[in-house]
Design a protein that fits this description.
By secondary structure, this protein is of the alpha+beta class. Helices cover 52% and strands 17% of the residues. The strands form 3 sheets. The chain has a 6-stranded antiparallel sheet. A 5-stranded mixed sheet has the order 8-10-11-13-12, with helices on one face. A two-stranded antiparallel sheet has the order 7-9. It is rod-shaped. It starts with a helix and ends in a 6-residue tail after the last helix. The structure holds adenosine-5'-diphosphate. Adenosine-5'-diphosphate binds next to helix 8 and helix 10.
């Protein structure tokens, strides 16, 4: 599987997982919302029924004498109800009066039972085929043969004497039962509407989640893909850089081996070539290892106070000999006051020495290199300025990339590995500092490194880790 396919598969897998997790969260939230809405509607229905039944109960009870025949009582006080086992001729109903202001009055029906649970009277709009026997449980829900669901509430009715005259309890605990019912057609329709809305909403949300999952997984994969490509590029570059000196080294060794008679001078010359290439290889490998250890932060030595004045005078002194060979005037300027920064001294030496070495390498004989140390309140800046070949503005960002050379041939001739500025940048990043270059072709280059100056308080505190 090539890397493109691998990244595409990972992206698909990531998007699927994201969509799956989001889908699960959405489904659970949808179910929660659904349950909440249905339960809220259901509770409202039961509250409304209880309230209507309570009003009816309170208005009926004072009109129910225990002594009178219940049928006669009902015929008198509720003429609008149909009486059991008698032809029904309904009038405007009592229930309609008590449900004034409620959404739809025709949805309610009323049934009255005697204390044995035998049906006495009922509203004409009661559901078809309801049994004339009372089921005493307070709440019931059932499906009528017409397919509509109904909900019923049953409450006990006491006779008027029991309540008002404090008579000894009647031989029967109640006068009878009042049953208030309603159709659940509107409730079921509303529930179905909510189901549809949530279902459609869920699929639309899932579609959006799918699209955003694809986009987000692309965003998440991008830096990994870029880093993978950089890694591949780096490996290819490193292999290429290693191959040239190795090939030349092998060729020289082979030539020595094949020569039938070798005179000492030739041998000397060839061995020098072998040594040069060997050194080049060794430099390259050391630089690569150093760069890797910097990027992996594998030697977390605590930062120490480093005196930049000493660092610059030491390094300029060290490079004076090389500058003399190149016939370049190397000078430095440092302030009288000592400037300290917190850092890894060896790495800071390496940073500045890379800049000075480059300045000397890319400045023709007769030129000058100046190393300058300056400071303001918080920042210490080291400037390495040369009068050399300069760098075109278009190249100025790329020179910090690994193995990038403005002019490959020229660099190789000077022995550069193409890693000097990458190492400089990695050191700068580890010290949370900055590096910049200002240059024009043939007008020299100025590299500036800015580091945070050590404050007097820092010198008193324990040293932080890098
Ligand atoms: P190298 O080992 O080739 O010097 P570097 O990473 O140190 O690699 O530098 C990258 C490239 O930047 C060099 O090949 C060179 O072309 C350019 N460069 C660096 N410093 C200077 C400078 N002071 N003047 C001109 N060109 C420079």
């Amino acid at each position: 599987m090539n890397s493109h396919q691998l990244f595409r598969r990972s992206r698909i897998r990531l998007a699927l997982w994201y969509a799956l997790v989001m889908g699960a969260i959405l489904s659970l939230s949808g179910l929660g919302v659904y349950r909440f809405l249905v339960q809220a509607n259901w509770a409202a229905i039961e509250r409304e029924m209880e309230s209507i039944a309570g009003t009816l109960h309170d208005s009926l009870e004072p009109m129910l004498p225990a002594s009178e025949d219940p049928i006669a009582v009902l015929r008198r006080i509720l003429p609008e109800l149909c009486l059991a086992a008698q032809p029904c001729n309904p009038q405007p109903t009592l229930i309609q009066r008590h449900t004034t202001g409620i959404s739809d009055r025709s949805i309610y029906y009323l049934r009255l039972f005697d204390h044995h649970g035998k049906l006495l009277a009922f509203s004409p709009n009661q559901p078809p085929s309801l049994p004339p026997i009372l089921d005493p449980s307070p709440w019931q829900t059932f499906h009528a043969p017409n397919g509509i669901r109904y909900h019923q509430f049953t409450t006990i009715l006491h006779s008027a004497e029991d309540q008002h005259h404090g008579h000894p309890p009647h031989s029967h605990p109640s006068w009878g039962y009042l049953q208030l019912g309603r159709t659940l057609a509107t409730f079921d329709a509303e529930t179905q509407r909510i189901q549809w809305i949530l279902l459609i909403g869920f699929f639309i949300a899932l579609l959006l989640v799918g699209c955003s999952a694809w986009w987000l997984s692309g965003l998440a994969m991008r830096p990994i893909y870029q880093s993978y490509q950089q890694q591949q590029q780096f490996t290819a570059n490193a292999a290429h850089e290693l191959r040239s000196p190795l090939a030349s080294l092998l060729a020289t060794v082979e030539a020595i081996l094949r020569m039938p008679q070798v005179d000492r001078q030739d041998i000397q010359f060839m061995l020098e070539t072998v040594e040069r290439q060997g050194r080049r290889l060794s430099h390259l490998i050391t630089d690569l290892l150093f760069l890797t250890s910097l990027e992996q932060n594998s030697s977390p030595k605590p930062f120490q106070p480093c005196c930049l004045n000493d660092l610059i005078s030491d390094l300029t002194e060290e490079f004076l000999e090389l500058a003399a060979i190149y016939e370049i005037q190397l000078t430095h300027q440092i302030p009288n006051q000592e400037l300290y920064v917190l850092g890894n001294e060896a790495q800071l030496y390496r940073l500045v020495s890379n800049l000075i070495a480059n300045a000397l390498q890319y400045t023709p004989s007769g030129g000058a290199v100046l190393v300058d140390l300056n400071a303001d309140d918080h920042i210490a800046s080291i400037t390495v300025k040369d009068t050399g070949l300069g760098i075109a503005p278009a190249e100025q960002q790329r020179i910090f990339d690994r193995f990038y050379r403005v002019d490959g041939d020229r660099s190789r001739k000077t022995g550069g590995t193409g890693l000097g500025l990458s190492i400089a940048r990695a050191i700068v990043e580890r010290h949370q500092a900055s590096i910049k270059v200002e240059s024009q072709v043939d007008q020299g280059a100025t590299f500036t490194v800015e580091l945070a100056k050590m404050t007097p308080q820092q010198s008193l505190k324990p040293l932080p880790s890098p």
